[in-house]
Amino acid sequence: MSLKSGGIVILDYGSQTAQLIARRVRELGVYAPLLPYTVTLDQAQDAAPDFRGVILSGGPSSVYDPGAPRLPDWALSGDWPVLGICYGMQLITQALGGAVAGALHREYGMASVQVREPGALFEGLDAGQTVWMSHGDRIERPPDGFRVLAHTDNAPYAAIGDPDRGLFGVQFHPEVVHTEHGAAMLRNFVFGVCGAAADWTPDHLIDASISAIREQVGSGRVLLGMSGGVDSSVAGELIHRAVGDQLLAVFVNHGMLRAGEADAVIALGRQLGWQNLIAVDATEEFLDRLAGITEPETKRQIIGATFADVFEREAARLGALDWLAQGTIYPDVIESAGTGRPGAKRIKSHHNVGGLPDHLRTRLVEPLRDLFKDEVRAVGTRLGLADSIVWRQPFPGPGLGVRCVGEITWERLELLRAADHIFTGELRAAGLLRVGTAQAFAMLLPVRSVGVMGDNRTYDEVIVLRAVTTTDFMTADWARLDHDLLARVSSRIVNEVKGVNRVLYDISTKPPATIEWE
Ligand code: XMP
Questions:
Q1: Ligand 1 atom closest to the CA of 349, numbered from 1
Q2: What sign results for the dihedral spanned by CA atoms 318, 323, 324, 325?
Q3: Cα dist. 205→3, 25, 53, 136, 211 in Å?
Q4: Are 61 and 69 within 8 A, CB to CB?
Q5: Which of 246, 247, 265, 475 ranks highest by number of CB atoms within 10 Å?
Q6: Ranges of H-type helices in 38-196
Q7: Residue 396's closest CA among 261, 510, 281, 279?
């Protein structure tokens, strides 16, 4: 039986929290793909064979809008239970002859629900509980056969259900943490109502992934671009466990990595027993091509193009290759499937491995395609990777190149590395790299400032500290770091990093700023 059997299908109606539903269900150990609401039954069964239930996400539309997303014809016609969340509940109501009212009473934020009939959904949960609402339309009259399971002051039909047919709807969002018993409600639905299988665990994922890679790759040779980040490390180790020395991992050191990072990647490869980890120090080539360049996009393009050149050259040196491994993860797959949500605009060019022979592009090995980031981390931990890799914060492909504002020289990079090492070291010691900040780093500005040290005037470099909190990196807030910690970092940087006399803390949110400066 496939690992994906017996799961829950989630149909995406465009809510900001649709991915969270899938993550919550998977946290229960149940496979849950997030699929566009336009999928056919065959496609749904292909994605999740023998699925045991369907969850309809919320969404920004009104069921009365012309062209509003609809229920697929198969959704309510099988013997599987269905849970509609917000817009999903309104779709069920409309489809079965109930009435949905227009957006007269908007409700947003916390609300108290009173459970009237615990039934299967609220089984074992408190009668009064806090939930998170975010909706315009609401149910005016439930379909025949549906009972009111819970209400709030504003929403007489906060939860409705026809338990005999296994159909349920909730106006609030059980997938967000602000809904007190949301996870328990989903557990009740997934196991109590649907009887889903709980075998989506790191151990099973590893076993299934290893067999799938073996089957796909056969005796072929697999090329992996190794960056030392969690995705390429976990993908690499899965492939290594599957096909051993058929894995050829190329690590390009572009000279713009953080303190100790290049050595750490090589040490990791050694620890994992990767026989074919090829480390290329291309620092000089990168810095030569970047000399005198200060314009951010030009810097990014040069770094991207140089990376592609070096990588391709190394790949050519390795001779015939059959497969290209990529650390694509599930959110990338969802985004590129274009499930109807407006795509995020590209503000900066992000570089991936480019310039590879076309025949490799079509022969991809993507062992993390089905996994959310937290699942990649869980698998990484189970594979024995160190916390420093599993919990590594995202680091941009162009590395310190986009944090060394202005011209990139070895001296400036060294100075930045030293300051960054102090900042991240202090955050790590305070336990703030894993929780508390989503990304934290130092930057070097292309301006100097006047200062005084001892009795002497200085005219030295300026370091900016940036630490943000975010879950999706599309929006971000600056981290409210403790002032004493900032004071210690500032004092250590000016004392320990020669040539720096001023330290700033960036208190810009995204938007309007971005996380990186370039
Ligand atoms: P911005 O600066 O656009 O960054 O707010 C959002 C997230 O993307 C990371 N970032 C990159 N990642 N290649 C990457 O792999 C890149 O070229 C790149 N540029 C920015 C950034 O660090 C943050 O996490």
A1: 17
A2: negative
A3: 8, 15, 21, 40, 10
A4: yes
A5: 247
A6: 41-47, 87-95, 182-187
A7: 261
Quote the pLDDT of residue 85: 98
Question: Measured between alpha carbons, how far is 157 from 60 in angstroms, rounded to an integer?
Answer: 19
Residue written as tokens 């629900």? 113
Report the C-alpha gap between 236 and 231 in whole angstroms: 8
Q: Is there a contact between 226 and 251 (Cβ–Cβ < 8 Å)?
A: yes
Helices (H), 229-295: 230-243, 261-272, 283-290
Which atom of ligand 1 is found nearest the CA of 514?
5
What is the distance between the alpha carbons of residues 478 and 512, in angstroms, rounded to a whole number?
A: 12
191 close to 33: Cβ distance less than 8 angstroms: no
pTM: 0.90
Closest CA to 338 of 7, 68, 4, 12: 12
pLDDT digits (tens, 9 = 90+) for 17-39: 999 999 999 999 999 999 999 99
Q: Please report the sign of the dihedral spanned by the C-alpha atoms of residue 229, residue 249, residue 225, residue 380.
A: negative
91: confidence class by pLDDT, cuts 50, 70, 90: very high
Residue 476 DSSP label? B
**From ligand 1's centre to the CA of 331, what distance in Å?**
15
